[in-house]
Amino acid sequence: xxxxxxxxxxxxxxxxxxxxxxxxxxxxxxxxxxxxxxxxxxxxxxxxxxxxxxxxxxxxxxxxxxxxxxxxxxxxxxxxxxxxxxxxxxxxxxxxxxxxxxxxxxxxxxxxxxxxxxxxxxxxxxxxxxxxxxxxxxxxxxxxxxxxxxxxxxxxxxxxxxxxxxxxxxxxxxxxxxxxxxxxxxxxxxxxxxxxxxxxxxxxxxxxxxxxxxxxxxxxxxxxxxxxxxxxxxxxxxxxxxx
Length: 243
Known about the structure:
With 243 residues, the protein is an all-alpha fold.
């Protein structure tokens, strides 16, 4: 056997056994994994955080699902939302007709043009809530906290505002016909041009309130505190205009 043959035979054997291994190993070494299609998708914007405070875990879970659905659809007619936390959310144009929001927290919530007619909001916290143009007709707002609330042009006809706190609230041009507001605190509130015809305002604190151009025809002001209130051009309960 020649010297060339002795050198060539080991080379051929190595080639036969090593090349297939390299062939299968090479893609693993040079190939980078293809990313999953779901990892390339743009993550969806998470829904606003809403919370329920119900002590019963089963009811709390059910109420939580209802809350999330309400925020997404902006509709929850006749819903039981007692004690929920919807603070700092934008719920403009939401329909909560006849909903129960007793003791709910809606601090700084935006409720522009919301429908809350015949809703129950007893003892609810709506501090600094924006209810511009909202429909609150026949709503039960007894004991509610609406301090510094924005209720410009809102409709509260026949609503119950007994013992409610509306200090520094903005009620310019609001419709408050026939409301029951006995014992309410409206000190430093603006009721410029508001309609308060035939309202029960007995015992209301109107100190430092702006009642200019307000319509108080037929209203009951028995025991009301009007100290330092602005009453220029307001229509008084007897129909006279204060000038």
